What does this fold into?
Amino acid sequence: MSVKGDFTIVVGETDAGRRLDSAVAGYVADCSRSLAAVLINAQRILVDGRPRKPGYRVKSGDSIQGRIPAPAKVDSSPEPIPIEIIYEDEQIVVVNKPPGLVVHPAPGHTDGTLVNALLYHCPDLGAIGGEVRPGIVHRLDKDTSGTMVIAKNSAAHEELSRQFKAREVEKKYLALVYGAPHSNAGTIRLPIGRHPADRKRMSTTTRKGRDAETIWQIRERFAGITLLELNLKTGRTHQIRVHCAAIGHPVVGDPVYRPRKLFGHLNSLPAEIPPPVVSELQSISRQMLHAWRLSFIHPAEKRLLTFESPLPRDMSAVIDFLRRAQQ
It folds into this structure.
């Protein structure tokens, strides 16, 4: 049922017993269950003229009346920003985000973002969650590169969001970190929350931290530097950067979570790092962190999809340099 504006639904016998939000989403095109729940809670969707909860179980003969608001206009405009599209169909688009690209407009970054690029490259992106905007379901930091999936309609957005929330999506990263872990693999389980003194940073020492789990294994060892493969079981803000710093192996090039004693004092870096490598590391301008692999279930076709993004040029060059330095 395609609806724009006012609608009335009479519940049939086959839908009796369904949640109200689910029933509305099933009848009304481009209305996700989450959007239906918002409208129900706002009393913009009624049952027989009475407000109900999203979890109300509808009955045969119930008359559901409501209005789907027109998609809100956004300030973001299409921009011809080059992006690498790995895969695209009617439901999703998967991209390899380059380092330095902000995902979504925010104060200080109102244009030049991945959203602006998507609006240009994918003009058929639908209305999602009541707004005309690409369906961002997860994010990467500005200076983190790698694989991202974006929903192209409300149904895909809701299903992908559910998978991320239920921790059903496999997210694997590659990172260069300082130091040499004693073991070849391990798990970091430390809660993450806002830093008590600096609201722009995250911390494992906050009293209001949320559970966070990072599984890691060593890919390659260099002199004083290690290449890690990391599997995120949760998706907290700056999780890998915070967890690696917390165990004494901060991400190379990270300007926020690298211990301050490592800034500007070359002799403070691990002693086993050769001087030429120290000089090379000091020239790095971003964290050496890359979202390498992403696996999830296609929101419509229900098949497992796995996508990988090759290392960006700058990170690949650093690894090549480290390999040559220890030959």
